[in-house]
Amino acid sequence: MKNLSLNTLRINNISFQNVLKQFYRFVFISSLLGLFLFIFDFGFDQSSKVQKVLNACYFIVLILGIITSVLRYTRREKEIERSVLTFDIISIFITIAVLYVHFFSEEAHHHLTFLYNDNWLKFVIILTFIREFSEQNINFKRTVLNPAQLFIVSFLAIILIGALLLMLPNATYTDISFLDALFTSTSAVCVTGLIVVDTGTYFTLFGQSIILGLIQIGGLGILTFASYFSYFFKGGSTYENQLTLSDVTGSNKLGEVFSTLKRILVITFSIELIAAVLIFTSLNKTLFGSLANRMFFSVFHSVSAFCNAGFSTLPNNLYETGFKYNYYLQSIIILSFVLGGLGFPIVVNILKYLKYFFTKRLFYFGNKKHPYKPWVLNLNSRITLITTLSLTVIGTIVFFINEYNNTLADHHGIGKFITALFGAATPRTAGFNTIDMSALNFSTVMMIFLLMWIGASPASTGGGIKTNTFAIAILNFISLAKGKAKIEIFRREIADVSVRRAFAVISLSLLVIGVAIMLISIFDSDKSLLDIAFECFSAYSTVGLSLGITAKLSSLSKLVIIAVMFVGRVSMLSILIAVVKKVKQQNYRYPKEEITIN
């Protein structure tokens, strides 16, 4: 009898668990529906009746969200992290406050007017969706999609969703074609910055916000956000997910995958926040209609700069009256896109080195018998920093000399140097401009070609063949000239696989750019070869600089540029890895034979 009652309890408990799972699933679907209604609400003009229906739907979604959050704590099976508890308490408090002001108290409309805004409803809807989405089981099945395929598919999905969002009536002041929306979305997600319509005057605040979101997602990757949020709320992940994410993030150890994701997010948002504050302080108040416009401008350009997107809400980018002589603003933008272009592993390694350096100074100051000197700055960081510094210094000097009496003629003193530095740093995938690009000397344009092609550093928000690839090519030249059979630097040997990968990236980049130039020359034969080549190099390296022909390109040429921007962002090598089937390693070696090269 006792066993029978225990079995009955177990069955009842199992059935209750199943009901609870179904309820959680229903709440997730309702939160997803709430997100779609939120997009519909923003994207279309609503009548008062439709708005009331939407608000009622929001109310139901938010109430369900609060119930599920409470249920998770009443029936929790393991210890809840303090950070998750804090998030839930804050989100529930904000949600209840918004619901109270909107639906339960007319007096609160007057006392809490800042909360009586439909945007607050939409904000808590997003919070609810994030919470419910993070509770879902996200499994990256390697048998279905390998990491390269998953990476490419995620970018394609975001680009398509972005294009559809930009076509919403309230996203633009006038209608936009699907091709132009697709071009803008691809440019934003691939953090390129090439535009066919002016961002500031063609897109509404809602449309600009969509572009801002696409830039942020494109710079970091949707997998970074989805994976970390899931891990943050659930406190763990499957081995298969960790294996896939280790390939995507470049983590050497499986145990470091989510700590790496956390560092990426913390570094990104910290730098963007600091940059936004500094940009805000650098702006002339008289150039903006309101404080909100000034704040949005600061956030937009901060994110665009760090993600190396090059998008601006100004008609002529930073070459606009009131901004082209703002050297303080330009210095902040330079610092932001240089940090974004260095790559997350390099920034983390630099922070680790600075911590070691100041600790050594603090605790071992005056002690000549300072013990062992560790290898804090790894080989990857050293090569990246030296290459970046060399390209920036040489580029600045060449730009300064070439353009002294041309595009720099209007600038004086420190202004000439900062403008020259900006002109030399921005081609390495940043895409902002503070001078008239069409007025540059031919020799300067040729230098920009090289800088665009090299681009930023690996694991960064920038494009191009990458600084390390260029550095390995140069080191290989020197090694061959010296008659060495291997590449050595800083008492380390470069692995053969890195050398092979570097030359594959170089060859594939030239192949893609060459084909693109040929196709656009056919589709737009009236355009000069220099303009077309500049456009293609800029698109492949996700730079965003142009000599002024982007909006004038034919539909077929725009499609070519879209493809080149996408290939440049995900890399042709990743596409080949995604498409070509891998072969098993065989334990045999054929006899070696040299091929005549020179």
Walk me through the structure.
The chain is mainly alpha-helical and 598 residues long. It has helices at residues 2-43, 48-74, 82-104, 107-111, 118-134, 147-166, 178-189, 199-202, 205-220, 222-234, 239-249, 257-282, 291-306, 327-342, 344-363, 379-403, 414-425, 442-454, 467-481, 496-523, 529-540, 555-570, 572-579; strands at 488-489, 492-493. Strands 1-2 form a two-stranded antiparallel ribbon. β1 (488-489) and β2 (492-493) form a beta hairpin. α6 (147-166) runs antiparallel to α9, α11 (239-249) packs across α12 and α21 packs parallel to α22 (555-570). It is globular, with a radius of gyration of 27 Å.
What is the string of SSEs from the N terminus onward? Answer: HHHHHHHHHHHHHHHHHHHEEHHHH
N- and C-termini, Cα separation? 91 Å
Low-confidence stretches: none
DSSP E strands, number:
2
* SS-based class: mainly alpha
| Strand order within the widest beta sheet | 1-2
Global shape = globular
Q: Any idea what the radius of gyration is?
A: 27 Å
% residues in beta strands: under 5%
| Annotation field: number of helices | 23
- Let me know the average pLDDT: 80
Largest beta-sheet characterization? 2 strands, antiparallel
Helix content: 55-70%
